[in-house]
């Protein structure tokens, strides 16, 4: 067989530079360190700034670099694993939970959430807002929706909102017996609120992980967690299968 055309194409300059830069990141820079500006980097490696930008953009896509507003280009921390397998991990707020509770309010949820929780459209639920931080940087934001029926003993707690009420709601949730949890994952774009909480620009790619916590055959809590796509990677459970949806049919690969 003859040589294919692709095999005769030389490696693009930006890709070679990406390899060189990757080695420099491992040997010369630490997590969170700000890189020199484009002019200095282009001069150091003897390339055009357009070539340098292509290499930097590739490393950003791979999660090796982060561009932060008002700071510049920094070395990204190692990607955090987001498990979407079948294994149970317990209720939110259980010991070992890496999330930080920020606030809790009693509000009417979006219609889609009310439908999942099987609550009335005008029925308020507890909305716990949480954050997850890695190497001092926010990597995920979560809204946890909990109907009043899941935490009935909370009525005697006189905490209208705030971190203390969030923790109280999560403690009450631990009293339920968790049967299972179901995860779904979607690729999305950061809205204005997500971008502000995650220190990203609006429209930046994010992973949206929705988790239903089920007890006695009903959804006792619903988590909608938004992860920065540049800092996270998906990990799978025991089977390693990825479900692919084709219309009404479902297959596993």
Account of the protein in words:
The structure is a single chain. The protein has helices at 13-28, 38-45, 49-61, 111-117, 163-173, 192-198; strands at residues 65-68, 72-75, 80-83, 100-107, 125-134, 137-146, 180-189, 205-215, 218-228, 232-235, 243-246, 249-252. The chain is α+β, with helices and mostly antiparallel strands and 253 residues long. Strands 4-5-6-9-8-7 form a six-stranded antiparallel sheet. Strands 1-2 form a two-stranded antiparallel ribbon. The chain has a two-stranded parallel sheet with strand order 3-10. Helix 1 (13-28) packs across helix 3 (49-61) and helix 2 (38-45) packs across helix 3 (49-61). It comes from Streptomyces thermocarboxydovorans. Keywords: DNA-binding, Transcription, Transcription regulation.
Strand content: 25-35%
Counted beta strands = 12
| Biggest beta-sheet profile | 6 strands, antiparallel
- Strand order of the main beta sheet, please? 4-5-6-9-8-7
Percent of residues in helical segments?
10-25%
What's the mean pLDDT score?
81
Shape: elongated
Count of helix runs: 6
Point out poorly predicted stretches. 1-9, 239-253
How far apart the termini lie comes to: 32 Å
What is the helix/strand order? HHHEEEEHEEHEHEEEEE
Radius of gyration computed on alpha carbons? 22 Å
Assign the structural class, choosing from mainly alpha, mainly beta, alpha/beta, alpha+beta, or little secondary structure: alpha+beta
Pfam families: GntR (PF00392), UTRA (PF07702)
Domain HTH gntR-type: 11-78
Protein name: GntR family transcriptional regulator
InterPro entries: Bact_HTH_transcr_reg, Chorismate_lyase_/UTRA_dom_sf, Tscrpt_reg_HTH_GntR, UTRA, WH-like_DNA-bd_sf, WH_DNA-bd_sf
